[in-house]
Design brief:
Pyrrolidone-carboxylate peptidase-like; two-stranded antiparallel ribbon; mainly alpha; two-stranded antiparallel sheet; Peptidase_C15-like_sf; hydrolase; about 110 residues; Peptidase_C15-like; globular
């Protein structure tokens, strides 16, 4: 789930505002149409320590996720946002293995 917040990434986007965009008095939320719980279950089954989150955090991550969901909706495709740790936390080889597993899991959904 992603809330659109008017938080610019570049100065030309305007002043920073933490005000959330509302539509007819309701908070506008977007979320992936992929079965995230199923993906998490598949990845955990093969040993990856993953969890679902409904928070892409703020600023750049929020901006990227919101706009990727909007683009996906406009073009009839799916989008998924994945937070990844620094290589100093989880090394590159482990993360590359995870990405390969994630892509295989997503591909198996069709």
């Amino acid at each position: 789930m992603r809330f659109h917040e008017r938080v610019p990434v570049v100065p030309s986007d305007g002043n920073i505002s933490r005000i959330r965009k509302h539509f007819h008095e309701a908070l506008v939320m977007n979320q992936t149409t992929l079965p995230v719980n199923e993906l998490v279950k598949m990845l955990r089954k093969i040993g990856h320590d993953v969890m679902r989150s409904d928070d892409a955090d703020r600023f750049v991550c929020n901006y990227v996720y919101y706009h990727s969901l909007r683009f996906a909706e406009e073009h009839g495709i799916k989008s998924l946002f994945v937070h990844v740790p620094l290589f100093s936390t989880i090394d590159e080889a482990v993360q590359m293995h995870f990405v390969a597993s994630l892509l295989e899991a997503v591909a198996s959904l069709n």
